[in-house]
Design a protein that fits this description.
Largest sheet: 7 strands, mixed
Number of strands: 22
Shape: globular
Distance between the termini: 6 Å
CATH architecture of the largest domain: 4-Layer Sandwich
Structural class: alpha/beta
Bound molecules: zinc ion
Strand order of the largest sheet: 6-5-4-3-2-1-22
CATH topology of the largest domain: Metallo-beta-lactamase, Chain A
C-alpha cells in the first residue's frame, strides 16, 4: 500500500491523497486549492494520475477545499464512485453547484472586463458539471466497512466521526496487513452542535490536519459575547448584523441565539436569516440531527425560530425595517452575497453593530472592517463605518494543538509514522515536533507536494 500527497502539503487547501494497492487507486478527498493565486492556478494543472485510473473517491467532508475539485476530476475522466456519509452528500449537493455557479460568474466577469490573459476565460467547471457529479455519490454509515477490489488487490475503508461539520469523518483504510487513517478536519471536543471527534481504533499510519497545529484556542464563551452584543444594540434600538458562513457557522450562531432566548437572557428579538444557502444547510442539519449533540425537537426549534428571507426584493425591504433585530447573512468575510446590501444600510449608523463570528482573511472587506477601516467600498462606492464592530474569533470549527494531540493519544494503537498536512508550514512543523516529543518512538513528518510513501 502506498500513499501519495497531492495537496494540502504545507498549506490548508487542496486536500487530495492517493492511496494505492497495486493497480487499485483510491483518492481520499478531492479538494480545491484556494486563496493565493499561485495556489488557485494549481486547480488548472493536469491531475497527477489519469483520473480514469482512479476507482473511487472517499470524501472526509463537504467543505470545498476537500470536495470542490470533484466535478473537474469527473470532467477529466473519473468514472468511479464517490463515497461519503449521508450528511456530506447532502451538503455537497448544495456546495458543489454553488461553486460551479461562482466560477461561471467569475469567468463572465473576466470576459466582460477583459482582464483575463485567456480569451475567453473559462470556468473550472459549471453549475451543471457539479450537478452532474452528484449521481456518482454513494453513502455509508458510521463505521460501516466497504471493500474495493481490482484483481487481487483489496482495500477496506470506514468512516468515523470527526466533529467539525455535519457528516465530517476521519477515514480508516486497510489492505488487511497495514492500515492508515486520514483525520480529515477535526472539530472541537466542546462544540455546541457537532459531536466530538471519535476515532479510537488507531492505525499503523496517520495523516493528521494541522490548521491550528501551533495554537491553543482562547477560552471565551461565544454565547456570552453574542448575548452582550444583542442586549446593548437593541437597547439603543439598533440592528445586529452577523456576516456568517452559510454552512455550519450560521447554524451554530442560530443555536446560541435559540439558547439565549430560551434561558431568557435576551428578549425575543426577531432574527432574520438572509442566505438561501444557509436556509438549505438548515434543512440538511435538521435531517441529520442524529449526527449532532442536540435532539430533534431542539434542532427544529432552532430552524423554526428564524425568519428566512426568500428573495432579493425581501432582502432590500429588510433594510427599510428600522426595528431592533438580528440579521445573519453570507458571506462570512463580507466578500460578496446579500450581506453587502445590509452593510451599506447598517454600517453608517452608530446604533447598529456588526458582529463577525469567524476568521477574516487578509485583504477581505471583513478584515478591513475589524481593523478599524473608517469607510469601505461596496459596489463601486464608499460607505462610512460608524457602527460598532465586534470580532468573535473563538468559534473555530477546528480543534487546536492540544485537541490534535489528544485525538492521537485517544487511539488504542501507536502509529509507526504520522504525516502532518493541512496547515501552513510553521503550524505543521510545530505539530510535527509536538508529536515526536509526546510520543517517543513515533516518527512524524511534514510531506511535500507529490511525495509518495510506501506503507508496507
Ligand atoms: Zn473543513
Amino acid at each position: 500500500m502506498k500513499v501519495q500527497f497531492l495537496g494540502a502539503t504545507e498549506t490548508i487547501t487542496g486536500s487530495r491523497y492517493l492511496v494505492s494497492e497495486g493497480n487499485l487507486k483510491i483518492l481520499v478527498d478531492c479538494g480545491l486549492f484556494q486563496g493565493y493565486k499561485n495556489l488557485r492556478l494549481k486547480n488548472w494543472h493536469a491531475f497527477q494520475v489519469p483520473p480514469a485510473e482512479i476507482s473511487a473517491v472517499l470524501l472526509t467532508h463537504a467543505h470545498l477545499d476537500h470536495s470542490g475539485y470533484l466535478p473537474r476530476l469527473r470532467m477529466n475522466g473519473f468514472n468511479g464512485t464517490i463515497f461519503s456519509t449521508p450528511a456530506t452528500k447532502d451538503l455537497a449537493a448544495i456546495l458543489l453547484p454553488d461553486s460551479g455557479h461562482l466560477q461561471e460568474e467569475e469567468a463572465r466577469f473576466l470576459n466582460k472586463h477583459g482582464t483575463s490573459k485567456h480569451a475567453p476565460a473559462l470556468p473550472l467547471y459549471t453549475q451543471k458539471d457539479a450537478t452532474d457529479t452528484m449521481p456518482s455519490f454513494s453513502t455509508l454509515g458510521w463505521r460501516e466497512q466497504k471493500t474495493l477490489k481490482s484483481g487481487d488487490n483489496e482495500l477496506t475503508f470506514s468512516f468515523h466521526p470527526a466533529g467539525h461539520l455535519f457528516g465530517a469523518a476521519s477515514i480508516l483504510i486497510s489492505n488487511g496487513k497495514k492500515s492508515i487513517v486520514f483525520s480529515g478536519d477535526l472539530g472541537r471536543d466542546n462544540d455546541p452542535i457537532t459531536q466530538a471527534p471519535d476515532f479510537k481504533e488507531g492505525a499503523d499510519f496517520v495523516v493528521i490536519e494541522s490548521t491550528y497545529g501551533d495554537r491553543v484556542h482562547e477560552q471565551i464563551e461565544p454565547e456570552k459575547v453574542i448575548a452582550e452584543t444583542i442586549l446593548k444594540t437593541i437597547a439603543r434600538k439598533g440592528t445586529v448584523l452577523i456576516p456568517s458562513f452559510a454552512v455550519g457557522r450560521a447554524q451554530q450562531v442560530l443555536y446560541y441565539i435559540h439558547r439565549l432566548k430560551k434561558a431568557g437572557s435576551i428578549p425575543d428579538v426577531p432574527v432574520f436569516l438572509n442566505s438561501p444557502m444557509a436556509d438549505k444547510a438548515n434543512d440538511v442539519f435538521c435531517s441529520h440531527v442524529e449526527d449532532s449533540r442536540i435532539n430533534r425537537s431542539e434542532a427544529h426549534a432552532i430552524c423554526d425560530g428564524v425568519r428566512t428571507v426568500a428573495s432579493v426584493e425581501e432582502s432590500v425591504e429588510l433594510n427599510l425595517n428600522k426595528d431592533p433585530k438580528v440579521i445573519i447573512a453570507a458571506s462570512g468575510m463580507a466578500t460578496g452575497g446579500r450581506v453587502l446590501h445590509h452593510l451599506k444600510s447598517l454600517a453608517p449608523d452608530a446604533k447598529n453593530t456588526i458582529l463577525f463570528v469567524g476568521y477574516q482573511a487578509g485583504g477581505t472587506r471583513g478584515d478591513a472592517i475589524v481593523r478599524g477601516a473608517k469607510e469601505i467600498k461596496i459596489h463601486g462606492q464608499y460607505w462610512p463605518v460608524l457602527s460598532e464592530v465586534i470580532q468573535l474569533d473563538t468559534m473555530s470549527a477546528h480543534t487546536d494543538s492540544i485537541g490534535l494531540i489528544n485525538w492521537l493519544r485517544g487511539q488504542k494503537k501507536r502509529p509507526m509514522e504520522v504525516f502532518v498536512t493541512h496547515g501552513e508550514a510553521s503550524s505543521a512543523d510545530n505539530l510535527r515536533r509536538k508529536i515526536e516529543e509526546t510520543f517517543p518512538g513515533v516518527r512524524a513528518s511534514v510531506p511535500t507536494f507529490g511525495e509518495c510513501v510506501n506503507l508496507d
